[in-house]
Amino acid sequence: MTGQVTGVGIGWRPEISGFVAELPGLRFVEVIAESLPPGGPLPPGLAELRERGVAVVPHGVRLSLGGAEPVDPKRVAHLAAAADLVGAPLVSEHIAFVRAGGVEVGHLLPLPRTREAVDAVVANVARTRAELPAPIALEPIAALFDWPDDELDEADFLTEIVDRTGALLLLDIANVYANARNRGRDPVALLDRLPLDRVGYVHVAGGADRDGVYHDTHTHPVPAPVLELVGELCARRPPPALMLERDGSYPPAAELRAELDAIARAAGQPVIT
Question: What are the DSSP calls for 197-214, one per residue?
Fold first, then answer.
């Protein structure tokens, strides 16, 4: 499967567009697909990055690939239009559901890890891929609970989905840490059982402890254990593209640069700032 991004990137958000525009070694950015107008034009800062040759990856949050109902054709069409608009090398979405029976829940919710759920994801990914101009990478989410009728563990569930869909894996290394920690398990052991050869790119994000639970917030600095997992990942396969994911409480530019440099160093890659 084709569809490649390389180096170190960052999630493009309007609030930090000026900061992102000044990063000299930036190779790619990710933009929330639903924030893009299907017919254009691109937001000014994003258009300038495209002109510089920075790859742009649309990241969907509303398809509900794990829903029992078929994906909404209009939402798939919007994701495809976003990919066309930015000349995307690939697109990404979540292994999750966000609606049922026409009700929007407003969150990415975990799936029961059953074979029936695998079948639903596989069918919806096939419907989506048929309309997309670029390959798709699927992101497992950070889950605060597991359903009681799970038939597969997380690694087997994800491996079966990527094997049957032919999709890439968007590996959120912070989610690996959060899920293992909240289940009282070893994140490195989980990492070793994931299909790392299918990783298209990697999210790296911060989180925080609240009431004995680790929350993947995207508003806190990347903690040392997550950076250590980046190193563990890169010791097991060639370093993939890595992206800092930040969605609020943006720190001063110097702190953001330090986070990006820390991610690059953890992966043994050149810093971009």
Answer: GGEEEEEE---EEETTEE
Beta strand 199-204 with 97-100 is: unpaired
Given the structure tokens 């909404």, which residue do they identify? Answer: 72
The three-state secondary structure class of 154 is helix
Q: Quote the pTM value.
A: 0.95
Number of Cβ within 10 Å of residue 186's Cβ equals 11
C-beta atoms surrounding 112 within 10 Å: 15
Report the 10 Å Cβ neighbour count for 83: 25
Residue type, 197: D
Of 84, 94, 92, the closest CA to residue 42 belongs to 84
146-200: pLDDT as tens digits: 889 889 999 999 999 999 999 999 999 999 999 999 999 999 999 999 999 999 9
Domains of the chain: 8-267 (3.20.20.150)
DSSP assignment of 81-134 equals HHHHHHT-S-EEEEESEEEETTEEEEEEEPPP-SHHHHHHHHHHHHHHHTT-SS
Distance CA 106, CA 110 (A): 13
| Bridging pattern class, strands 97-100 and 103-109 | antiparallel
Rounded Cα distance between 49 and 59, Å, is 17
CB 34 within 8 A of CB 65: no
Q: Is residue 35 within 8 Å of 11, Cβ to Cβ?
A: no
Token couple for 202: 């990697």
